[in-house]
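Our example copied in:
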Amino acid sequence: MISRRTGQPIAFQPIDAAHPSGNTFSDDTKDLHTYGLSFGTKWVTIHDTATDPGGTGFDANALAKAAKATPFKRPENGQFRPGTGFREFYFDETGDTNADSTANNGFGGWGSVLKLSQADPKADSGTLSLVYNGDKAHTGLDNVTFLDADHVAFVEDAGDTLHSQRGLLDSAYLFDLRADFAHGAQPVRFIAEGRDPSATLDAGFAGKT
């Protein structure tokens, strides 16, 4: 992904004296989680089984950093939008799953939904834009599936820490891709997890044999 500010790839920034938090709080990270902005993209290859040595392990993280691939806030799952001929791809960032994360306010700590668009599915370039910025009530987005061309469902995996912090377990939300999430539209919750007495009783035996 290309920075709107520098025209250079938004790559992993190691923690050093000049960047004590890496690129966690960089201008580029903030831009990525700002409605209305779009970014040029270009695919990079980190391992090609047709040309790279096979049968041996490789460090995907190290290769991605070397290729200047863009890091996201824990991306989990994605789906192509039906009817777009593989030209629109939607994926989620799970985020930090912690209500105390200092990245929650504007830097993707609550996670997000992002859209990758390509005029030609065989091309190596396209554009990336923000669909939805998460918040305390809608975060930890993980599994995803389309119900039809305009409605996509994301399911939370918020984790025990955030479950305790907000007093709620995970939910599933339906996003209408025609809605204006930048100006207050919200997804519709259609599944909400709860705990029945038996489940609560079982939890008391966790870790015991």
